Structures are given as C-alpha cells and as structure tokens.
Amino acid sequence: MQQHTTNTQIVFANSTEEAKNKYLSMNLETHDPDPVLECYKVTEEEDFDLSEDFNLIGEVSLSPPVMETIRQDARRAYVLYYLEKIE
After folding, report:
1. How many domains does the chain fold into?
2. CA triplet 18, 59, 76: central angle to 5 degrees?
3. How far is CA 16 from CA 7, 12, 19, 80, in A?
4. Which of 1, 19, 20, 61 could join 78 via S-S bond, C-beta 3.0 to 4.6 A?
5. 3-state secondary structure string, the chain?
6. How far is CA 62 from CA 27, 32, 49, 81, 86, in A?
C-alpha cells in the first residue's frame, strides 16, 4: 500500500495548532479512514526559498500560483495536507 498526498491547502495562522484547527474545520473528504495530517510552517523550513517560483515542502511541490498565495503573508503561512494510504 502506498501513501499519497491529498487535499493540500495553504492556511494563514498564528500557530501550528491554529493552522491545524482551520484545516480540520474545512472537513475535507478523504478515502483513508485514518489519514496522517502533515503541517509545515514555510518560514521554518530550511530549504524553502520565498523568492523561488517552485518549492518542495514535505511531500508536495508548490507551484507559482501557490507561492503567490504564500507571499501574501509568508510569516503566517502553513502548508497542510493529508498523507493517505491508497491501494
């Protein structure tokens, strides 16, 4: 069984807990009954470069439109997604 990323979202928050709560309140549909929630604060990721059009964070690649969103408030930007087991 492989794991895949799903439901990637950018959330602006003042803490990891707040970011996770905002994400969970979206009630995003998953296929895995027990998905793993991944949460990354972009300014705390070593290889994250705000000036680049593309970035890799955790298991996901961030495209230019996503980077534009992050740049709106980079200090409060979190990238969240589910890791789901998919057969």
Report:
1. 1
2. 30
3. 17, 10, 5, 10
4. 19
5. CEEEEEEEEEEECCCHHHHHHHHHCCCCCCCCCCCEEEEEEHHHCCCCCCCCCCEEECCEEECHHHHHHHHCCHHHEEEEEEEEEEC
6. 22, 23, 11, 12, 22
Among 72, 67, 7, CA closest to 39: 7
Q: Which tens digits make up the pLDDT trace of 25-61?
A: 999 999 999 999 999 999 999 999 999 999 999 999 9
Containing domain of residue 73, as a range? 2-86
Residue showing tokens 């409060």: 76
- Max distance between CA atoms of the chain, in angstroms, equals 37
